[in-house]
Amino acid sequence: MSSFQKSNSLTDFDAVVVGAGFSGLYMLYRLRETGFTARVFEAGDNVGGTWYWNRYPGARCDVESIYYNYTFSEELLKEWSWSAKYAEQPEILSYINYVADKFDLRRDVQFNTRVQSAQYNEKKNRWTVQLNSGEKVSAQYFITAVGCLSASNVPKFKGLENFKGEWHHTGHWPHEGVDFQGKRVGIIGTGSSGIQAIPVIAKEAKHLTVFQRTPQYSSPARNTPNDPEHLKNIRKNYSDIRAKMRHSITGIPEEPRNISVFDDSPEERQRVFEEAWQKGGLLNLTYSYNDLSITPEANAIVAEFIRSKIRETVIKPEVAEKLLPRFYYGTKRTIIDTDYFETYNRDNVSLVDVKEAPIQEITATGVKTEDAEYELDMIVFATGFDAMTGPLFKIDIRGKDGVSLKEKWAGGSHTRTYLGLGTAGFPNMFMLTGPESPSVLSNMMVSIEQHVEWVSDCISYMCDQNQAVIEAKEDAENTWSNHCREIADQTLFTKTNSWYMGANIEGKARGFQIYLGGVGTYRTICDEVAEKGYVGFILT
Ligand code: FAD
Ligand code: N01
């Protein structure tokens, strides 16, 4: 290629990539295509990331599968057919494996290997990466593809070690599956994972007790098998669809209707919401009006519509009452389900409100709350993740002068990045779907491809320009971080205690860490930065 010094020893690479999910694998592909040596380290024993770990019953994507896939290869787009509107976890995992085979990616991935630390050596301009195997490798570029939702959170319940039954976290599900037949199962958590798992487990278990702390909004997914004709049309028009995805708000080729909820009469609103409810899917309700996530009064109207649906669906009024969410709709991850509220009409399902009577401890035989004891054979923790900074902080990442990322970001309360891609003091480190990028508030496939392509173009540019070091400027990152917060503060997102705010982890600093300006706007900003010679970064 150019004058760039290539690394070719077995332990020295141009780039080390952490994680072999969708982002790490595509990063590897692009680095190879552009002529760089790379090694991927993955804690699991195979590819897939999220879809490798989250094998709980009912797990599936909630972005339509035709949009939740790689778009970089025309050949791949032609070869793969999704069976349903929302693909289930096994099918998504098969897809990732298919991609890994097709592009022969596994030969550069070291599995069963956790990256423990990464330290930047200023004199050598190399990152030294320490692995849990005891090995050390070095690389000019350190690229994290660790995922935003890969650090499972099992809350520190007193007495869990005494529990005599089986317990599992949804994000760390046994590969051999779990047998619920004849068992009294308890599930803690009613977020996206809990709401997907509950209807499926209820069909198998002898009895299912749901421990709910915060009732959630959820609307029907209305999943259906994909019609081959529909897929044919999609394939024919994919370049237009891809362009729309890339320039949209969320990475899904749909836009909100440009109308306020107050521009319609109550009857018309009801009709619009009802149509969206019947249609199902992730954005139909949210996109019904343009002010639902901005003004409390608008939000209250859609929230009440969903509460009315819950009252309508759940037969026992006292159970329905406990299931009614009261926070701003859409400020926790929007959820779509298959028969979630209907499941509470089953005789073998009971609901326990643990906000009213919190869990005191896990005993040898079950869960003890402040007012009762529940005998269980199995506990499922659908308790989420230490999101965004969690997987990054699990690695001891140290930049210039030995400063750790955790120290720099004050444990997460003071996250500072430039474009969510880099951070000052950490030269030649890139974060894929890092904090302060659109990441988890987008169709992540679009965000992943955009980041990977931006990073590989940047590395190629550096190589062509004979530049060895790239580092975010402090003023550029301050401007970016403030901009992210300003946008978030104009919405209702920051008014709710959610994992987006770090509120789900005991002792975690609070702060909203996602860029909300939309993936299209974000792409334009990143492209302009690159076109102007990576303005806001120092290149030497
Ligand atoms: P991940 O898939 O999380 O992969 C990261 C990998 O890095 C993991 O395999 C992990 O083992 C590895 N790793 C982390 N730290 C280390 C370390 N120190 N050393 C070695 N390896 C390490 N997004 C959507 O857009 N649409 C959806 O419908 C959707 N559904 C989801 C459903 C579930 C159940 C979950 C949990 C998330 C979902 N997401 C969804 C978000 C999903 O995480 C992303 O879409 C995407 O799969 C992320 O890919 P990734 O490669 O960036 O990260
Ligand atoms: O995790 P969550 P998740 N005692 O944090 C409860 C993606 N995803 O795994 O709300 C009692 O949302 C907690 O209660 P509360 C998606 O981005 C996508 O479900 O904090 N309860 C909550 O009910 C999603 O947002 C899909 O009061 C406790 C639940 O556990 C993200 O992953 C599917 C508790 C955790 O919900 C995380 O979803 C699955 C305690 N000590 C996941 N601690 C798709 O379909 C926590 N809880 C796309």
UniProtKB/TrEMBL annotation:
GO molecular function terms attached to this record: oxidoreductase activity, acting on paired donors, with incorporation or reduction of molecular oxygen, NAD(P)H as one donor, and incorporation of one atom of oxygen
Cofactor: FAD
UniProt keyword list: FAD, Flavoprotein, Monooxygenase, NADP, Oxidoreductase
Tree of life domain: Bacteria
InterPro entries, per database record: FAD-binding_Monooxygenases (IPR050775), FAD/NAD-bd_sf (IPR036188)
Family: Belongs to the FAD-binding monooxygenase family.
Name of the protein this chain belongs to: Cyclohexanone monooxygenase
Species per Swiss-Prot/TrEMBL record: Sporosarcina globispora
Phylogenetic lineage: Bacteria, Bacillati, Bacillota, Bacilli, Bacillales
